[in-house]
Amino acid sequence: MPSSAVPPASTAQTAVERSAIKKVSVRLVPFVALMFFVNYLDRTAVSFAEPNGMGQDLALTAAQFGFASGIFFLGYIVLEVPSNMALHRFGARRWLARIMVTWGIVSLLFTWVQNSEQLYALRFLLGVAEAGFFPGAILFLSQWVPSRHRTKILGLFYLAQPLTTVFGAPLAGWLINRHGLFGLEGWRVMFLFVSLPAILLGAIAWFYLIDRPADAKWLTADEKTWLTGALEAENAGKTGHEGRGGHAKGDLKAAFTNARVWVLAVVYFGFVYGLYALAFFLPTIINGFQEQYDTTFSVMDKAWITAIPYLPAAIVLFLWTRHATRNGTRTWHIAGPAVVGGVTIPLALYMGSPTATVAVITVTACSIFAALPVFWSVPSRFLTGAAAAAGIALINTAGNIAGFAASYVTGWLKDWTGDYYVPLYLVGALMLLSAVLMIRLASRTRPDADAEHREPAEALR
After folding, report:
1. Number of domains forming the structure of the chain
2. Membrane-crossing residues (predicted)?
């Protein structure tokens, strides 16, 4: 064979790399994203139910609804880190499947809730059942691709979150309109039918997911070799790498005593506070347009209006993560959206019409969703193994605390002040704090650091 027919080693390796990443993107990411879609729909279904019958039937005040929404996160926090450590020990296939089946069963019980106390108890148990799913999914996908591809993969995965509202809000509205089916109120019908997919997907996940590239039959030998080698080489310099003499207890301590982990936890707190303030109260705010602007919306009208901000958010998320992947993740990929979100969310209060208000909220949603997948590419730059499991779970725990705080504090402040001005100003302030901390973290750059092995504060310029 002529020498010209044999591709150079670098070209062959590039072809193997492209095919391996493409297969991971096609075989794993859509399924895990579908799991995330169902996960987010389950946890936010209460926000569609409250203004469409549940609030009246259970006699909920804004503070009670906020507490019911937020207590989910307390349950999640209880088992967040232990769940992710269990996933690291037993494998993502078994643990993510177990999580889905148990949360589906708990979610199904919402169909028959009778009072606020039962609602509180089930929301808490739902958090316990779901504990570890999101950080587990992030950890699982991070273990399949090297860091230079991670923003792209996490971006594709994260598309499920805004698309849950794009498709989930109209679906929830349609199900709520099935009032009387099986003798149930419409909001109970919705809980019934959004719960069953979680149980089904959990059973499928047990057989479909694969814990590591070396076990994937759909990868060629060359693709397995490249992925395994690239990940091992990248992990060699990270906290938690077993090859450096670490063990689970030591790696857990390393993650919990790492200052960068705690800074990232606070940054994530600000983003998630804004995310859930929107997710839980946007349907209620839209419902309030009827009195504020003397208009009337049907259940489906409110569902479609709720979905409006999230379709542009999904598009911006995709383009933003694509830009970060092609050009390298920079500080402004995370801090920039935080500033835009921090300014626009209180600005929405001063718009003079539903259209203008929803338009500004759309900008806020775009900002939050653009930053989140890029943010999650950062922890795995300096953590691996048990330390990554613990560190990612700890950061996500801060997010769950934010989810509880955003839900309860927003409702409480609304009841106390009579409007959403103070609650949304607080959201804006927290997002601006996230921007400041991200810039501060990145300011510790060592210009002479090797770009391939830079730690997060040094990789984000």
Report:
1. 1
2. 24-41, 61-83, 95-114, 120-141, 153-176, 188-209, 261-283, 303-320, 332-350, 356-376, 383-408, 420-439
